[in-house]
Each structure stands twice: as C-alpha cells, then as structure tokens.
C-alpha cells in the first residue's frame, strides 16, 4: 500500500509535465527545447544529491564498465519517452496527451515476459521467463476504461491532426518508459540505489539531449525566458521529484509483477491532476457527468490493485543479469 501511495504522489508531480509542456507550445516554444532543457536542468540537481550522499563514484564506474548498456536502455527509457511526449504536446491538448499516456499502465504489464526471475528447484537456481499477471492486466484495462470515459467529452473537439500527431508518439513513449526503467532496474538494482540509477540514466542520455538542443538552437533560435523557467519547473517537479518517487516505488516492488503493475497503474491518476490543473490554471471547464463516472471507475481500479497487492504471494528474487529482450 505504501508503494501505491508513493506512486500517486509521483503522478501528481508528473502532471506538471503535461500542463506546462502544452503551455510552452501555446506560447510558441520549440518542443525540442522543452525536451532537452528538462534533462539538462536535472543533471546538477542529481549530481548534488548523489555527491552529498557520497556515492557518486560507483555511478561513473558503472557507466565506464557498461557504456553500451547504459546508453542503449537510457535512450529507450528517457529519450524515446520524453521526446515523443513533448513533440505530441505541439499538436494535442494536455488532457489528450495525459489520457493517451495511460496506455503505459497496460504496456508495463505486457512487457513482463521480457524479464526473468530466479526460482529454486531443490537447491539449484533456475532462471525462468516471467508471466503476465492476468488479474493485474484486467484491473489495468478497467482503469483504462475509466480514463477513456474521462476523455470522451473532449473527443469531439479533437481534429484528425491532433489525434494522429498527438497520440502515436505518446504510444511509443508509453512502452519505452517502463521498458527502459525495468531493464536498468534489473541490471543495476543490486549495485546502485534509486538516485544513482536516475543520475546514471540521465548522464547516459545526455549526448542525445545536447544534439537535440543544438538542433533547436539552429532551427528555432534560443529559448524564450518563459520557456526556460517553465522547463526548470518541469525538471524539478517531474524530472527530479516525480521520477525519484516513481523509481523508488517500482524498485521496492520489482520482485512481484502484480505489485509492480499496481504501482505503474497509479500513473492513471495523472489524468485527475491534469484536469484539476487545467481547470485552475488554464480556465478549462469542469468535467461532466460522464467524466466523473470515469473518475469513479479509475479510483475503483486503483483500490482493486491495492487489494490484490495485499493478497499477493511472497516475492521471488529477480535475475539481475541483463538477458536477451
């Protein structure tokens, strides 16, 4: 239950991303600056946290010993996650992006067979591919149904361009984020803590953000002061606080696929926070009866996930060696 609450707290800070990314696009800012500035601003904060805790040396040793693994999965988990989200914000409203993003709660479960657990046959350890937790998958589909009902009143206002350019990039991000996170968690969780892993992934993805920011400078010019400020807020709220909370929750749940699915399902509450933020900050109208019914289904799904976690089995040790995907 504690991990689920941490996940909900993370989703509240994640919601800042969708609101401010849309705000920056409406102000004429380049999506490339919105994406790259967030991770460029994250670096000094994460460095400071890790250095204060006096465990930064291990991060750089990991990057030196396994550069291709870190660069590859950090590209999947960070670059192919956030660049498509900011690109989509240029074409679709925040509620559409946030709602489509909830596909990630099912995507994380469907990715379960890409990972292995260690079980013991007598005294002999044996690695077995994990199975999709069907109960958790069904509950996640229930949550998605609630999200769809929340989005339904808005669909008549969406153009074909907004639907295609604002949805398909988010679908890519929805699968890449849990895949990159889980792969790096499985690979390094026995050696690095959450802060170290986030710093390592941020540093490993840094070359791609520098390339993107250089491209933005050439094609769109320097970012406006407002975009820099809002990107800084996104970096602190979403990049540092939300990512750290979410990674802590998933790291604590990594040995139980059902519990991990429940934590990832808490991200569906982002829709609630985005709706509330748009009402308070962007003067959006209050949701109608259908949306409130969807909110009720969403909350019910989260409760069912928490009840399933309480009845879960004892954890099984996850294999920490990177296997073929």
Describe the structure.
The protein is mainly alpha-helical. The protein has one domain. Helices cover 74% and strands 4% of the residues. It has 13 helices and two strands, in the order H-H-H-H-H-H-E-E-H-H-H-H-H-H-H. Strands 1-2 form a two-stranded antiparallel ribbon. The longest helix is centred in the middle third of the chain and has 29 residues. It is globular and about 60 Å long. The C terminus is likely disordered.
Which key terms come to mind for this protein?
mainly alpha; two-stranded antiparallel sheet; single chain; 325 residues
Strand order of the largest sheet: 1-2
Low-confidence stretches: 313-325
Average predicted local confidence, pLDDT: 82
Q: Largest sheet at a glance? A: 2 strands, antiparallel
SS summary, helix count: 13
Helix and strand content put the structural class at mainly alpha
Shape descriptor: globular
Could you spell the SSE succession in H and E letters?
Answer: HHHHHHEEHHHHHHH
Distance, first to last CA: 30 Å
| Tally of DSSP β-strands | 2
Task: Compute the number of structural domains.
Answer: 1
Q: Which percent range describes the beta-strand content?
A: under 5%
Which radius of gyration do the C-alpha atoms yield?
Answer: 19 Å
User: Helix fraction?
Assistant: over 70%
